[in-house]
Amino acid sequence: MITLAAGVHAAVVAHAQQSPSIEVCGLLIGTRGPDGVTITDVHPTANVAAEGCEDRFTVDPRVLLRLEEELEPSGTELVGVYHSHPRTPPDPSLLDRRNAALWPSFVHAIAGRDNGDPIAPTGAAALRCRPLVVRWYWSDSGGVLSSAPPCTPACSSLSKASKAAGSPPS
């Protein structure tokens, strides 16, 4: 199960809206436990993919290593990565699926519009577009992506209470 702390979803959406023509990317920070992953924070990063490459993303490996070092004493860790699809729906591309093999046991989030409308910046142009959607995926230990709709902390508490009572969550 993927649980999102307050503000995580909105932070991914806000970052995607900052760049309506080139993919944005960032890292997801949180904790792992027996019930899954809890994402507590996002760390937007620069997309260092080759210049002019609008449909790819690359997280700077130096940022990745620095963040892992900074997180170590905090009890949180890097649990996932996100990026945007400025001109296509938030479904994993073939390249996204291949790259998931590099990030096994990670959460992958993709922001885009269900109907493929381009991402519009905030303001009047954004009001004419459908809302931005973020789809969440889980990469298993073999790097295979599968859809994993997240829940909020309240949903997580309900699920734990149902499990303790011996009934499936509703």
Please give a structural write-up.
There is one protein chain. By secondary structure, this protein is of the alpha/beta class. It has a 7-stranded mixed β-sheet. It starts with a strand and ends in a 5-residue tail after the last helix. The C terminus is likely disordered. The protein has one domain: Cytidine Deaminase, domain 2. Helix content is 26%, strand content 27%.
Task: State the gist of this model.
The protein is 26% helix and 27% strand.
Topology:
Elements: E1 2-4, H1 8-17, E2 25-33, E3 36-45, H2 61-71, E4 77-84, H3 94-100, E5 107-112, H4 124-127, E6 133-139, E7 145-147, H5 153-165
CATH architecture: 3-Layer(aba) Sandwich
- CATH superfamily caption: Cytidine Deaminase, domain 2
Low-confidence stretches: 122-129, 156-170
Q: State the shape.
A: globular
Q: Which sheet architecture does the biggest sheet show?
A: 7 strands, mixed
- Strand arrangement, major sheet: 1-3-2-4-5-6-7
Tell me the CATH topology: Cytidine Deaminase, domain 2
- What is the residue-averaged pLDDT? 80
| Structural class by sheet pairing and helices | alpha/beta
Q: What is the total tally of β strands?
A: 7
What percent strand?
25-35%
Share of residues in helices: 25-40%
Give the C-level CATH assignment.
Answer: Alpha Beta
